[in-house]
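Reply to thread "Modeling small-molecule complexes from scratch"

Following up on the discussion above, here's a worked example others can learn from. I took a protein sequence and the SMILES for flavin mononucleotide and predicted the complex. Inputs first:
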Amino acid sequence: MAPHERFRLRSAAHLLEEAGRLGLDIPYSDDISVLIERASLGGREVPNRLAVLPMEGADAGPSGAPSGSTSRRYRRYAAGGAGLIWCEAAAVRADGRSNPRQLMLTEETLGGFSRLVEGIRDAARKARGAGHSPLLVLQLTHSGRFAKPQGLPRPLIVQNNPHLAPLHDLPADATLISDAELAAIRDDFVEAADLAASAGFDGVDIKACHGYLVSETLAAHGREDSRYGGPFENRSRLLLEIVRRVREEAPGLLVSSRLSAADLVPFPFGFGMDPDRPGRIDLRETKALAGLLAKAGVRVLALSLGIPAWKPHFGRPFDQPVPGGAVPDEHPLEGVARHLAVAAEIQRSAPRTAIVGAGYSWLRTLGPGVGAAMVGAGRSAAFGLGRGALAYPDFAADLLDHGRMAARKVCTTCSLCSHLLRRQRPVGCVVRDPEYKNADREGGPG
Ligand SMILES: Cc1cc2nc3c(=O)[nH]c(=O)nc-3n(C[C@H](O)[C@H](O)[C@H](O)COP(=O)(O)O)c2cc1C
């Protein structure tokens, strides 16, 4: 492992030199045409392979309906030309909200979501022409262990986990959510997916990443006497049941999932981890799951890594941690390379599934060249930015119109957007968006 360093890459040649020095496989292509041409993604036509990844905004109204700020964020993404807009986590019920301002999709908020979709489509058309219609996927979630519906932790946990318990001062033998409650939450996911279809989304993502509820079932090796714990068949059941039911009840809807391909929490408490080498990734079960999801009709799969509340750098390589956070003991380029390797391995094992990877924002203007090399070599199907899109919502337009991103507009991976989210404050880019200037310094819940 190389020591942590801030970004100092001057060019693609410098990137490749650094990757060589660190022994990392980072592909690069100067030709980004594969990203900007029209394409088919999971059987759906998209204007380009440039994606906005889901980024919680913590700016919904009390009912969970999108607010003016939510709408502004998405209209900016839409006007920015991305071909795939993966909308942030929206809770399927109140006890699953990650904070009191998380979006929530219910009968009551359906009208607000429908207007959000109209606003996105309208902004996309106005900025990029009548033929430009991005693929719109809504991520559906239950926050499980990380639920804070009223602002304070109200964890609903699937298995006791000594690595994660200290985050909420949980006892080693905390009460677990029952199978009956998990089945009820499954039904809420199905209902919310139906509502998402009514609101006009093209697809839904059954969120199974970052240690949230469905993700935690995948890792529930130690959950005993349960349909949703123990052997792989049981641990994958909740996700597969939701996917199959949504496919039956909303056949026109694209059904996807965002998986943490590996939790990075050591086996047996993490999914995708090596039973024999503590802390090492083992993708055998992740590949098996991707295969089962493909059989169930999932043609687009988004990948992430890790549990951000535990160790955020695995999911989002950064220059600076959140204020007071730990500086990781690895070079951010190692984190980027891990994302790329995992995406490529899953894509190789599931060639008919379109894999959307993550972790590119740290690369700044060099990201699209790496993404183009990945997609060009069939190692993944799209290039997506999370923090990078929040900072630079028109990154896609600059790639489409000028063939490159502008250095003065990129995300600096300062982690202040994560800091805002942790403080349950509306999320925006403190560095690039004048409306959020100094937002990290304003008062509010700590
Ligand atoms: C403030 C913030 C909010 C996020 N919200 C979500 C979310 O709602 N759903 C999700 O799957 N990932 C979420 N993520 C993770 C991002 O989608 C993305 O995977 C991560 O930032 C790494 O990609 P990047 O390097 O392009 O930022 C969030 C990340 C941040 C920093």
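What I'd highlight from this example: The chain has a mean pLDDT of 97. The first strand starts at residue 39 and ends at 41. Questions welcome below.
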